[in-house]
Design a protein that fits this description.
Helices cover 14% and strands 61% of the residues. An eight-stranded antiparallel beta barrel has the order 1-2-3-6-7-8-9-10. About 6% of the residues have low confidence.
């Protein structure tokens, strides 16, 4: 009789643990949206802009692939609020640049990324994403493949939304001599 009771207790506990794990897994969001805003700075090493501060607005959607990864699609917009700019006009003879005053920094694009998620709870605590996509530079009219990396941390969260802190870098390998690198910091609203 004791053996039967132990077997039943073991069976009950294993079913309970399995159901708890399945419930926790089902409570994890399968997808979420991020609306992020912040300040970006273009590094002085860029060729088109000496230095520029810009407003950064990003809308991103993420779809969980596994427990620790997600596919992310993000649309970025960078609009200059300060800094000097110049536009490179290529000389057809030797390919050299002559610089003329141009519009302020403006870059827009879409990037597909793989996001790595930490935290086994119902909400992603830390997210690091790496990806690439086409970006358009408004000052020069050039389109380039942008390389994008971000890291986000959940500051506060509930069952349906949260506030995140985010930092990132976008590298645009355009311009006559050096790539343009945009470093950004901001806050975001996450909805899942």
């Amino acid at each position: 009789m004791k053996l039967i009771c132990r077997a039943l207790a073991l069976l009950f506990s294993s079913v309970l643990l399995d159901s708890t794990a399945l419930r926790a897994q089902s409570e994890r969001p399968h997808g979420w949206f991020d609306l992020k805003g912040g300040i970006a700075y273009e590094s002085p090493g860029g060729s088109d802009f000496a230095s520029a501060a810009a407003l950064n607005l990003t809308l991103a959607g993420s779809l969980r692939l596994t427990t620790g990864t997600a596919l992310q699609l993000a649309a970025d917009d960078f609009t200059s609020i300060s800094g000097s700019s110049s536009v490179c006009l290529h000389n057809p003879g030797n390919g050299a640049c002559s610089y003329e005053g141009g519009s302020r920094l403006r870059a827009m694009g879409v990037a597909a990324s793989i996001a790595f998620i930490s935290g086994d709870g119902p909400t992603p605590v830390w997210t690091a994403s790496f990806g690439a996509g086409p970006y358009w530079m408004g000052s020069s009219g050039q389109t380039s493949l942008g390389l994008r990396a971000t890291i986000e941390g959940l500051l506060v969260g509930s069952k349906t939304n949260g506030l995140t802190a985010t930092g990132g870098v976008l590298v645009l390998p355009m311009g006559p001599s050096a790539p343009i690198s945009l470093f950004s910091l901001g806050l975001g609203l996450r909805v899942w």
